[in-house]
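Throughout our pipeline, every protein is held as a single compact record rather than as scattered files. The record that follows is passed on verbatim for readers who wish to inspect the format.
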Amino acid sequence: MAPRATVRPRREEPALPRDASPRRYLMCPPAHFEVTYSINPWMDPTKPVDRPLAQLQWESLRDRYRSLGHRVDVLPARPGLPDMVYAANGATVVGGRVLGARFAHAERAAEAAHHLEWFRANGWTDVHEPEHVNEGEGDFAVTASWILAGRGFRSSPLSHAEAQEVFGRPVIGLDLVDPRHYHLDTALAVLDDRTDEIMYWPGAFSPGSRAVLARLFPDALVADGSDAAALGLNAVSDGRHVLLPQAAVGLFAPLRARGFEPVGTDLSELLKGGGSVKCCTQELRP
């Protein structure tokens, strides 16, 4: 009788490191940051804000981008607009075209004009003022094939057709159902916009939207609730380095397993306003 063959468990090869691509970002310093009102569940006006610490944390994020070879432009902060630090909300830029924001809450409405003024003053000529409420990259995420668009708390569903006309890309509407994830960028992050690779937390979305995400992105990194609660999906990736809140510890190993390099970032003071890495970072796509 022939000896029985030994079946050895298959070894998974470690993922090869990814290639980063240079990016251009727009950020706004927290010079006037404070929490004096509440327009999302993260904001509590009874909790004091340490503005000097917020400034240091913001500068650390800005400097990290630059150390990775990315360009960071700075939008001047304006008195009376404490949420301008969340620069991602002020516009969406794809292929050199700029779609401005129209904010849902009166407290932030004046930010939109300052963003459009910056673009026009800095050589951007294809600039569109929106008709419908959208909060920039808070609710628009750009992949290679689509623009994913959040709705349910801030951005109007009517803004999706408007974005499709401006950018000439198919827009996929996604319904947000958890008030803590009032913007798409708190529940979903694009890991590689060259390969349609994303990570997201299913609990933030309606059943139909979860089914759409599973169909479009069957290999997505699916986060758990604890990392979502740390705003771990509010992340920025250059295709290799993924800057994300350092408290989202459960995402580090899965990102490394896929060849990404997670970079933990402390923006704990800015979390008091409901935002982290992505909220502070608008991408200027040429």
